[in-house]
Design brief:
Blueprint lengths: L1 H8 L3 E3 L5 E5 L28 H11 L6 E5 L9 H9 L3 E6 L6 H12 L5 E6 L5 H8 L3 H14 L5 E6 L5 H13 L10 E5 L23 E5 L2 E3 L11 E5 L2 E2 L2 E3 L3 H9 L10
Parallel strand pairs: 2-3, 2-8, 3-4, 4-5, 5-6, 6-7
Antiparallel strand pairs: 1-12, 8-9, 9-10, 10-11
Helix pairs in contact: 4-6
The structure holds iron/sulfur cluster (SF4).
């Protein structure tokens, strides 16, 4: 009876066997958009400058030296708003391939040309992941704000012009089938003379606000972001990008000393474990 009770109250555990992906949250509040369903809790202080100090990034990246890591990810808020973005990107590209998760508003032809120069200095690759939720301007701007569609599309075209192979990040608000979304985006870009592949689309499941904790049953550990990843924010080390800065998912203060064991005791975990797909980590890891 006692054991049965213990099983009921101890949440499932996921152990990080090997750190393959590290997310660096350059800022949580500094963003130039106010998307309706940003997974970072909306905050009246959004747009406040809360950038992670570059020294903290240097300190954590130095711990990675000599270790093999698949990918670094620069996230926010909007990572390109960080005053030291270029320097941080160069530091990351000395270590491994780096994915920049951006809303695209800061990328035009001039910026893309400069980003190409940074990329060419490195043996590793920069992958730009640009948020565009719909091929329909009104639908996209309804969620992300007026003008965001044109800017994101402009960024994608500028990046392609400078020989990047951007990924379009689509939040699946309507819970459509992956094939349906892919066909829509493929036809949309084909009309612009651009062929996209499945690798160019990252479909992010929609996590509604105020989700309730459900019982976590069977799940595939390998498919969870927390099984291969950690996040560094200015507040410490966290289990996964969806739970950055949530005190329940804080696992330490730096990569020098953090917990490899993560308890799935947050509401988002109960949705995430049901999905059977990687939420933020690149699909091809
Ligand atoms: S939300 Fe998903 S990836 Fe994040 S800690 Fe929970 S189960 Fe792991």
């Amino acid at each position: 009876m006692e054991n049965q009770l213990a099983e009921l109250i101890v949440p499932p555990v996921v152990e990080l066997k090997e750190l393959k992906n590290l997310f660096l949250q350059l800022s949580s509040k500094a963003c130039n958009l106010k998307c309706k369903n940003c997974y970072i809790e909306r905050n009246p202080l959004k747009n406040e400058e809360d950038f992670i100090p570059i020294e903290k990034i240097k300190e954590n990246l130095s711990i990675l030296k000599g270790r093999k890591i698949n990918s670094l990810y620069l996230t926010g808020g909007e990572p390109l708003l960080h005053p030291d973005f270029n320097q941080i990107l160069r530091m990351c590209l000395k270590i491994t391939n780096t994915t920049v998760m951006s809303n695209g508003t800061m990328i035009n032809d001039k910026k893309a040309r400069f980003l190409r120069k940074i990329d060419d200095e490195s043996q590793f690759e920069t992958i730009y992941r640009i948020s565009l939720d719909s091929t329909n301007e009104l639908e996209n701007d309804e969620m992300r704000g007026r003008g965001s569609y044109r800017k994101a599309l402009g960024a994608i075209m500028s990046l392609i012009k400078y020989e990047f192979n951007p990924i379009i990040s689509v939040v699946n608000y309507k819970n459509l089938k992956k094939e349906e979304i892919f066909d829509d985006f493929m036809n949309f870009f084909r009309k612009k003379g651009i062929e996209i592949d499945e690798i160019n689309l990252k479909i992010i499941p929609y996590f509604p606000k105020n989700i309730e904790m459900e019982e976590i049953k069977n799940f595939e550990k390998e498919m969870l972001d927390c099984a291969t990843s950690r996040v560094i924010s200015k507040n410490g080390v966290y289990a996964c990008p969806m739970l950055t800065n949530d005190y329940r998912a804080r696992l330490g203060s730096s990569l020098a000393d953090y917990s490899k064991v993560n308890y799935l005791d947050c509401e988002k975990c109960s949705i995430c474990t049901k999905l059977g797909q990687r939420v933020q980590v690149n699909d091809w890891i």
